[in-house]
Description:
The chain is an all-alpha fold. The protein contains two helices and no strands.
Amino acid sequence: MRTFIHTVLSGIYTAYTELLFSLTLTLKIAEIKQIQQKIKEEQCFLGQLICEKKDIDSEEVKTTLKQIEFLQEEVEYLKEKLENFKNLFLHKRQQRLKSFKGVF
Length: 104
């Protein structure tokens, strides 16, 4: 009876962690897409600035380029963080699956 209850509770816990993982993954991907959209907007703004001012060395252009560079670095950081999170979760999932094999 204890084994059955333990198995059921472990299954519920596993389903819960899978759900949390999916939600977290979805939120992180949405955050990355939002930043990528901001990069596109900044690039459009940069193009307009260059067309209007005809001066690539203006302070506004330099500031916009720095902003785009910062956002691109942020996207790379978030992608790396997301990959690490995914790998950690998959490792823990593998450990849980091994523990289930011992029950059955």
